[in-house]
């Protein structure tokens, strides 16, 4: 009976595609979880640099990159996927998640606290947001992939659709030039957008481990009004801001982002 319960509880999870950097040491491995429309490759440079003293794992989330496609993009399912990776490689791990990946990492820590040593949440709070990311799906669908022979071709079409330069480069990393397809399940991401910008409020805490909420100084994703919700779920939360950067803080200022992560992970 117990086996059946465990099997049913984990039947919705999938094994994500992941990359490993560095070798195991006495320090816990670090799992990096990308945000919406991203992939593990977006974090390759930072992961490689942080792997000088620990193993670092980057994943492609479901419906992103080389990971399997699924009908759900709920945070419960994404957290289960991450738990499966940690169990496969070795628990517990430190976990760093950005945006959608930050929410998935928070749910992971709340539902599977035994798998998470320390938590880093980059520019997101455990709250529902009113904005949508639909305009980017619309822009990506306007790209005529049949005419794309190199990423710059797609960047030009995204620019014509009004996408800012930094995001043009980011989005085109998810194009498979050879097969002329997006490595994003745009249909499911669009259908599940209310869940992605929302928050599963039925999930309760607390996660008592150390949690570091690092925000962009010019971003409005993490406000002072969000702190009670954060502290209610993560009572040992620390807060910091990187000045002069927005929501994509790790891309806008990777060196200071890396230094902040190192400083937090250096805490005992």
User: How much is the average pLDDT?
Assistant: 93
Can you tell me the CATH topology of the largest domain? Rossmann fold
How many helices? The count is: 12
Q: The biggest beta sheet, please?
A: 7 strands, mixed
CATH superfamily of the largest domain: Alpha/Beta hydrolase fold, catalytic domain
Poorly predicted regions? 1-9
Assembly level = single chain
Question: What is the straight-line distance between the termini?
Answer: 40 Å
CATH class of the largest domain: Alpha Beta
Strand content: 15-25%
- The CATH architecture of the largest domain can be named as 3-Layer(aba) Sandwich
Question: Strand-and-helix sequence, N→C?
Answer: HEEHEHEHEHHHEEHHEHEHH
Shape: globular
- How many strands appear in the DSSP assignment? 9
Q: What is the domain total for the residues? A: 2
Compute the gyration radius: what is it?
A: 18 Å
